[in-house]
Amino acid sequence: QVQLVESGGGLVQAGGSLRLACAASGRTFSRNNMGWFRQAPGKERDIVAAVSWSWSGDSTFYADSVKGRFTISRDNAKNMLYLQMNSLKPEDTAVYYCAARSRFGTAPSVGDDEYDYWGQGTQVTVSS
Fold first, then answer.
1. In Å, what is the CA distance from 118 to each residue of 80, 96, 108?
2. Closest listed residue to residue 46, CA positions, set 19, 70, 69, 65
3. Rg (CA), the chain
4. Tell me: the pLDDT tens digits for 56-79?
5. Is it the case that residue 105 has pLDDT exceeding 90?
6. How far is CA 8 from CA 83, 96, 101, 110, 111, in A?
7. Count of beta carbons in the 10 Å neighbourhood of residue 104
8. Phi, psi values for residue 93, rounded to 5°
9. How far is CA 6 from CA 55, 59, 71, 104, 128, in A?
């Protein structure tokens, strides 16, 4: 049974940093597309960052709103996915979800309908 479990969320002041972690179990995802999404109250779930595997190294995608501030990475030996979030803003407040695709792709997956497995989410709140 595949499980994705997020951790690392919390309350932080604007300008601060958080590191989200997603622990995968049940199968390995070292060559599978993985991503981070977020959903703010009353809004749709949006892509934050995504990663795909290739022989020359992982490819990444970032939403325009987080470029230069967030970094997605993974530790294949530990079957973990991370999201380093720096220079946080109040508008980053949301529930953050880890997602994994059952197959690998040639480019990062940015649509939530492309993912097969989801974590339960972790709350990130940024105060002004």
1. 14, 11, 16
2. 65
3. 14
4. 889 999 999 999 999 999 999 999
5. no
6. 9, 10, 22, 22, 24
7. 15
8. -60, 125
9. 27, 22, 16, 21, 24
